[in-house]
Amino acid sequence: MKLKNISLIALFTTLLSLNAAADEVITTDGARLLGEITLIDKGTITLKTNYAGTLQIKQDQVASFSTDGARVVRLESGTVMAGPVESSGGGKLKIKSQDGVLETSTAKIAASWSPDAEDPQVARNRREWRYDASLDLAGRRGNVDKFRLGTNLNAKLKGPNDTLAFFFQYEEAEEAGLETENRITGGTSYESFFSKVLGWYARTELEKDEIDNIDMRSSTAAGLSFRLINKDNQSLIARSGIGYRYTSFSNGAVNESNATIDFGLAHNYEFKDLFVMNNDLTFVPAVDDFSNYRMVHDSGIEVPLGSSKNWKIRMGIMNEYVSETAALEKLDTTYYTRMIYSWR
After folding, report:
1. Which of 38, 149, 217, 316 is deepest in the core (most CB within 10 A)?
2. Cα 226 to Cα 308: distance, rounded to the nearest angstrom
3. Where exactly are the structural domains of the chain?
4. Dihedral angle computed from the Cα positions of residues 224, 267, 161 and 163, in that order, rounded to the nearest 10 degrees
5. What is the DSSP string of 141-153?
6. 123: helix, coil or strand?
7. Phi, psi values for residue 137, rounded to 5°
8. What is the pLDDT along the chain (344 residues), one digit of tens a residue?
9. H, E, C per residue of 276-332
10. Residue 56 pairs with which residues in a beta bridge?
């Protein structure tokens, strides 16, 4: 009997110590949630629990919270303090630092993070390089021998409001012993936004395509960018500008040279950690003749491989249509599956 009582007391003491060591979130409807507050950012409190995994609670649904250990807190006013956070009732909070005690409210906290972590706003505003390399290799032997090789290299210096990008692509394919694709493309672009919606861009691209008898195609454009959607998981950018296109052919055809108007759409959508969808469309008509145009469309879905943050597969389709050209075909359509390795 005594042993049983001792066991119950020990269990009760353990539960009390676990509760005492936990951060606490009190919602506006009176719910009391225990766990570890790992981050407060963009109006959301992230609470890591042992009983329900990681919870994301809207900050306007939280009456108060408290932390067992020290947290760095940044207020809407810009004030930054580090120390434990306590609830003082009536929706008020006390932040205890070495310099004193500050009383505030949940609504006035812009962000909070662990002392060994970084202000999420600083991390978002940092410009950093991002790289990816992909390989598309396919072959088949049977009634018709087929072979295809595609490589892509991309580098981006990306910040919250600007992006500098470089790219290189190579494609080669054979069918029944005949070469069906042999193209090299490379280019660079820069885009910068000076307001939430409005920005500017400039891009240039060089291309060589032996199958279409293109010795060199040079495309340059610059203009205005319009950020129509700008969310954490989705963006939509429209572009409009002017440019110049020059094409020289290897089969003796007359070279093409046109001033152009440049239209573009770029859409990106990220669905949690399951997949990323990208859609890009450019439409470039000649200034003096809108029926003379080049249109390029590329849509694909990127899916991570297991829990890896570096490896992923991209499946998509790319269409290129040139309305007036000395090349043999006006439309090139490519279905592809690429293995991509990304790093920073």
Report:
1. 217
2. 34
3. 23-124, 127-343
4. -90
5. -SSS-EEEEEEEE
6. helix
7. -125, 120
8. 443 443 444 444 444 444 445 899 999 888 999 999 999 998 999 999 988 888 989 998 998 899 988 999 999 999 898 999 988 777 788 898 887 888 888 889 999 999 988 999 888 888 999 999 998 876 655 555 778 888 999 999 999 899 999 999 998 888 877 888 899 999 999 999 999 999 999 999 999 998 888 899 999 999 999 999 998 899 999 999 999 999 998 888 888 899 999 999 999 999 987 899 999 999 999 999 888 999 999 999 999 998 788 999 999 998 999 888 766 678 888 888 889 999 98
9. EEEEEEEEEEECCCCCCEEEEEEEEEEEECCCCCCEEEEEEEEEEEECCCCCCCCEE
10. 46
Give residue 35's region: left, alpha or beta (phi > 0; psi -120 to 50).
left
Give pTM, 2 decimals.
0.76
The single-letter DSSP state of residue 2 is H
Structure tokens at 86: 């306590």
Q: Are 212 and 328 a contacting pair, CB within 8 Å?
A: yes
Q: How far apart are CA 173 and CA 177, in angstroms?
A: 10
Q: What is the DSSP letter of 12?
A: H
Question: For 14, what's the count of Cα atoms within 13 Å in the CB-facing half-sphere?
Answer: 6
Tokens representing 144?
């018709």
Q: How far apart are CA 172 and CA 89, in angstroms?
A: 69
Choose the CATH number for 127-343 among 2.60.40.3780, 3.40.50.360, 2.30.30.100, 2.40.160.40.
2.40.160.40
CB burial of 287-317 (b: ≥16 within 10 Å; e: otherwise) equals eeeeebbbbbbbebbbebeeeeeeebbbebe
For residue 148, give every residue at least 6 positions away whose Cβ sits within 8 Å of its Cβ, in sequence order, or none.
136, 137, 138, 139, 171, 172, 173, 174, 181
User: Which strand (E) or helix (H) includes residue 19?
Assistant: helix 2-20
Residue recorded with tokens 């936990």:
22
Structure tokens at 47: 């609470």
Among 171, 126, 154, 169, smallest CA distance to 342 is for: 154
